[in-house]
Amino acid sequence: MIQLDRDDPLADYRDRFVLEEGLIYLNGNSLGALPREARNRAAEVVEQEWGQGLIRSWNRHDWVSLPTRVGDKVAGLIGAAPGEVVVADSTSVNLFKLAAAAIRMRPGRCKIVSEPGNFPTDLYMLQGLEGFLQGEVRLETAPREVLSSHIDEDTALVVLTHVHYKSGELFDMAAITARAHEVGALMLWDLSHSAGAVPVDLNGVGADFAVGCGYKYLNGGPGAPGYLFVARRHLNDIHQPLSGWFGHAEPFAMRDDYQPADSIKRGLCGTPGVLGTAVMEVGVELQASADMSKVRAKSRRLGELFIQLVEAHCEGMGFALASPRDAERRGSQVSFTHQHAYPIMQALIARNIIGDFRAPDILRFGFAPLYVRHVDIWDTVQALADIMATGEWDAPQYKQRSAVT
Predict the structure, then answer these.
(1) Which residues belong to the active site?
(2) What phi, psi does 253 have (nearest 5°)?
(3) Which residue numbers belong to the known binding site for pyridoxal 5'-phosphate?
(4) Domains (range + CATH), the chain
(5) For the whole model, what pTM was predicted?
(6) What is the pLDDT of residues 242-278, one digit of tens each?
(7) How far is residue 101's CA from residue 80's CA, in Å, rounded to a whole number?
(8) Which key words tag this protein in UniProt (predicted)?
């Protein structure tokens, strides 16, 4: 393992993150680590741009262009072109905006297609849209094995997450997008567990829309803004319902009537969150500086190693692989099921090895290639095997559920 880390072409990136000595952090698929430069940037924005520049910083430090400037940098990570991505709001809000706009673009069609077990907020937002439209459209979910057969001429929009949040399974983005277009439907991808971890080529597959978050593999910090993508061919046709002033063609003209911007800016709503977006920019730039082919190669290697070691050292202890074995079908995480998944994960966390639990029985381990080492994988599995062999997980303190799991 030590030699693998010495030969790792991404090894130098680890020092660019704040990671305490002895910590093994395998939860970058939920919240990315803090880039060192983000601390400096946060202080600069707070103390100088806000503290000294005050309102002048909208012009002096070009705060007003943050959503599109950072959006263009995100675009480079997801196969989009400049002017097709804007940073704004949250993933949930952006999904609602684009889904509502897509329904309007396909009048007469009555169905949104997704899958059961999709990330909950995606389903909740679609259910909310369904209720808001009072029967004009309905949400239909179908297991991925038969999903394509549910995409038909009644379908206005297909909404799916590229990398499944529990299993890490990858959808065939090109095939599903092609199927949606075959029947005249639009396609919206959630990239929250993809961007920065696996190659994404939205324009290459002809995707219509996408959303994602900034706080996982993009290392933008807790609650970092989300982003939305609109393919250039749709920019003049999309009318999202949250027509706030920053999406106006002339925000500071202060007119009573709304006129959408003739660019991706029409995806904006209210005043951008300057602090969050400025810090997120650091994480996006850091991720964008890495060679994605090397990021993906390391991600696959870490996942394969983890699976091999768990199955070799924890055999007969009740673990079952919940992620695809084939690395081509798996994002940058590996999940195992166990009937005592929650206390087992708590026992690992008590040893300063941080993964997470997803109900009802998933232990989830994320591998952010810029800072996870091969030796971390070995040490995690040795700790896991010891926790199981000694029954450490069965201690009462590990069974009390926390608010966030």
Answers:
(1) 119, 190, 215-216, 364
(2) -75, -20
(3) 91-92, 119-122, 161, 190, 193, 215, 245, 271
(4) 2-30+291-398 (3.90.1150.10), 40-288 (3.40.640.10)
(5) 0.96
(6) 999 999 999 999 999 999 999 999 999 999 999 999 9
(7) 20
(8) Hydrolase, Pyridine nucleotide biosynthesis, Pyridoxal phosphate
